[in-house]
Amino acid sequence: MEAKETLKAHIGKLAVLTDEQFDYFFSHFKKQRFQKGQTIITRGDAVDCEYFVVSGCLKSFFVNDDLKMFILQFAMPNWWASDYNALYNQTKAAINVDCITDAEVLCLTSADREKLCKEVHNVEHFFRWRTNKGFVAAQKRLLSFMNNDAKYRYEELLKLYPELYNMVPKHLIAAYLGVSRETLSRLYHS
């Protein structure tokens, strides 16, 4: 499926746009391709875009002072990624975003998103619902970390996103779950 059709199907799940409105909406996106391992956002960067994943897989992550990696998000097709604090508050990036696989994304600048939201009510509706869904998902993940053991979190991730296990190296899944590679191996084989 072409990038335009992929985005149209994604938007159509939450908002109704006429063909003319969607064409106008789509005209504000810039298509970009990245190679496996390529960095999109580096900690300390100014951030002006959010990225809709057409194909491939991205990861948003933080590396602490002890050089331990914490993965905040895997962004698969039809997902969005950015450093949202930096994007919305015009601060420097606190996280990194890079490509786990080759990826095709559609980039939308913050200024264009705001312009579109003011001009097309259903675009604003889409972004509000997308933000709400993202907040709920983040809250569920945080509660799972506070309430569930690693085995439960692993099984929950496998159930919700089975395609991750073919797309993402196991050491990255371990970092997402907050466990060592060895612990993940034990969970994987239990």
Structure notes:
- The protein is 48% helix and 22% strand.
- By secondary structure, the protein is an alpha+beta fold.
- The protein has a domain at 3-122: Jelly Rolls, CATH 2.60.120.10.
- Helix 8 packs across helix 9.
Order of strands, main sheet, comes to 1-8-3-6
> Spans with pLDDT under 50 lasting ≥5 residues?
none
Shape: globular
**How helix-rich are the residues, as a percent range?**
40-55%
Q: Calculate Rg over CA atoms.
A: 17 Å
CATH superfamily of the domain at 3-122: Jelly Rolls
The biggest beta sheet, please?
Answer: 4 strands, antiparallel
CATH-defined fold name of the domain at 3-122: Jelly Rolls
Span between termini: 38 Å
Write the CATH architecture name of the domain at 3-122: Sandwich
What is the count of β-strands? 8
Our count of helices gives 9
- Average predicted confidence as pLDDT: 92
Structural class: alpha+beta
- Please state roughly what percent of the residues sit in beta strands, choosing from under 5%, 5-15%, 15-25%, 25-35%, 35-45% or over 45%: 15-25%
